[in-house]
Design brief:
10 helices, Creatine Amidinohydrolase, single chain, six-stranded mixed beta sheet, globular, alpha+beta, 2 domains, Creatine Amidinohydrolase, Chain A, domain 1
Length: about 425
């Protein structure tokens, strides 16, 4: 595995060896993911980003940021409830407010958190409890008192996402609120080797899922049936959250609808899939295009062009490269049938991966040409391209996840994609 320096902050990998993709069990005979080291790394990265920001604290409601700071999770059901939050000041260990009995659970089973910092918290469940109940006010006053005790009450506080009544309550408590999401994205952009191993393991789960999809992709099957099959395969393999699976085929391929239906596959259909899921919180975004039993020359040509565009991008990835240099090598929106870059956003695209689906860097002609971002060793991101078939019968969609190494990158999405895959060929 990796050798780390400077309290696990600086990457110092041995890129001469393959990135591990170990089993899910803990074992005594080889080192796999070291979760204690992972927790230390993430908290240290957050502290470093907080110091550089000039803020006195970050207050996080975003589930990904709460997990990054506290290494706690209570289930994907909580993701859209805005019911958990964490506070980190420049002078404290993390505070965590959790959903009812989960606070007691963490006092018992999360010894890396200070017991008196694990607290039950309740705000409003996205308005189900009205602000008049006073929960926002009480929470804001508690936070303000902690900031005062830690000596940072006179410094700005970064908040990532929040309900409007909570923001108003924080301001009423005398807090100067700034954007905290940028601080957290600064922290999360460089992955430790433990994070990279988790991302690689997540990708390996999708490798196997595409094998299952390829075997089942036959005339008469339906998009929703393959989505169900992929969900079963992923959860059986160890996924902790299948966020979404896009299954798009035939006439639905162009323009890309970003969903699935009950459409039945027919001979000669072009079909693409995106598998968005997580292992230990670390996500995949992994497209593949497969044809059903046969393919036309126009479909082959669309795939060849999409593959050329993604290969150009992969070749450019290395530390010190900037995102504008990659985006400018991709076709303009009008070249593949869209009026402008806003309408084509997400089709020729790059985005960081980690605990969230979209981290840094973002690569797109919409934003990168005028606002370039430097690529750094230890980043992990996905590159995706799209090309509609000239005869209107389908479209090609390819995505590769890459790890930025000292002198280039490693592709960790390994299901065959150099040529158009024909499933169950006649």
């Amino acid at each position: 595995m990796a050798t780390s320096t400077k309290n696990d902050l600086a990457p110092n990998w041995n890129w001469d060896r393959p990135i591990p993709s170990p089993g899910r069990m803990a074992v005594d005979f080889e080192e796999r993911v070291n979760f204690d080291r992972l927790r230390r790394y993430r908290l240290a990265r957050t502290r470093e980003a907080l110091r550089a920001s000039g803020l006195g604290a970050v207050l996080c409601f975003d589930n990904n940021n709460v997990r990054y700071i506290t290494s706690s999770v209570i289930g994907e059901w909580s993701r859209d409830k805005i019911c958990r939050y964490a506070l980190l000041t420049g002078n404290s260990e993390p505070y965590l407010w959790d959903f009812g009995s989960a606070a007691t659970h963490h006092r018992l089973f999360a010894p890396w958190l200070e017991p008196d910092h694990c607290r039950a918290g309740m705000l409003g469940l996205r308005g189900a409890v009205a602000p008049d109940a006073g929960l926002f006010k009480r929470a804001a006053e508690e936070i303000a008192s902690l900031l005062k005790a830690d000596g940072v009450a006179d410094m700005p506080v970064g908040v990532d996402v929040s309900e409007p009544p909570m923001l108003e309550a924080l301001k009423a408590a005398g807090l100067d609120i700034h954007d905290g999401q940028q601080v957290m994205l600064d922290a999360r952009e460089i992955k430790s080797m433990d994070e990279i191993v988790l991302l690689n393991t997540a990708a390996s789960m999708v490798d196997g899922t595409y094998q299952v999809i390829a075997e089942a992709l036959k005339p008469g099957a339906r998009e929703n049936e393959l989505v169900a099959l992929a969900n079963y395969q992923l959860y059986e393999a160890g996924s902790d959250d299948v966020e979404a699976i896009n299954a798009v085929s035939g006439e639905r391929c162009s323009p890309h609808p970003h969903n699935f239906t009950d459409r039945m596959y027919r001979p000669g259909d072009q079909a693409f899939f995106d598998v968005i899921q997580a292992y230990m919180g670390y996500r995949t975004c992994y497209y593949r295009t497969l044809n059903v039993s046969s393919a036309t020359p126009a479909q082959h040509d669309a795939y060849r062009r999409a593959r050329e565009w993604i290969d150009i991008a992969i070749e450019l990835v290395r530390p010190g490269m900037t995102t504008d240099k990659i985006a400018e090598r991709w076709p303009e929106a009008r070249e593949f049938g869209f009026a402008n870059e806003m309408e084509a956003f997400g089709l020729q695209f790059g985005h960081g991966l980690g605990l969230a689906l979209h981290e840094r860097p973002i690569i797109s002609r919409l934003v990168s040409l005028d606002n370039p971002f430097e690529i750094k060793e230890g980043m992990v991101f996905a590159l995706e391209t799209y090309c509609p078939a000239a005869d209107g019968n389908g479209a090609a969609r390819i995505e590769e996840e890459v790890v930025v190494t000292a002198d280039g990158c490693r592709v960790i999405t390994l299901f065959p994609a150099q040529e158009l895959f024909i499933a169950n060929e006649y």
